[in-house]
Amino acid sequence: MQKTLNDLYSMFTKGDVKRCEFEGLIYHYYVHNQEKTCICHWKHDEYEDFISWFYPRMKIAVDSYEETGSSFEAFMARYLLISSKEYHVRTTTNNVIEYSAWSARIPEMYAREEPPVYIHRETKEVITKLVIDKKGRKNSRRILALILKCYYYISEDFAEKIAPMIDMESSQLLDMIYRMREKRQKKEDNIFNMNEKIYRQYYRCIIYDKRLTYIKENTATYNKMKIRRQKARLRLEKMRERREKMRTDASNSEIAEIIGITKGTVDASLSRLKTKWKEMAKKADQN
After folding, report:
1. Torsion sign (Cα): 211, 212, 217, 222
2. In the chain, what is the straight-line distance between the N-terminal and C-terminal CA atoms, in Å?
3. pTM
4. To the nearest 5 percent, what fractions of the chain are helix, strand and coil?
């Protein structure tokens, strides 16, 4: 005949079994007697996971029991019920977090997937026109200044393809880009850290949205969660505003130092390039 929890506790108090053996017997009892517990309606796999999670808390339960009228079995049944609610909340929260994170991450992975870089015929024509100055001479330094200005968005593949168009070796152009990145490393680190904070805050907002769907409306818990979500969204917007103000383009002084020319020359080159771009865009609209 199988022993009850009351029988096991009696053996423990008499000294017939040691503490560790007693806790093991309780664990064995719960594993093989789900139908006798308050959570007999749970799926067996979920029940086994819960009992494994509950086992470390068994010591606290045994220490908390006092023989004041309630039997040990009744006390453990109550303790098991309270623990099952805690376990359910924790697993639900973890599932919500995991679901929300992946729901946000999957479309982001598609959106951030980098396509292969192609230099189209139209692109070559535009670059060729921009390189030629008013006197018909080729001035590759203008495009070089623009490339270094936008270095943050220039991939190695693109740099290798565009280098011949400005009469440079790809290794030489990449070396300039690497030097620019080294010079602006601290600023890039700040941008990276801010991006990571924004991602975490974005996921936090999604988690709040998902958790609200599990809570009954117009309850105290629902209203508190709703306020947290509002604050989280407000903070996210402020973080995005701060990120927008962080410059990713190199300064003209930094460009001048990398190329080895004066800042005034860089200012003039980029200004003329901007003017010519507007002229070309205007002609394209007229045609």
Report:
1. positive
2. 97
3. 0.50
4. 75, 0, 20
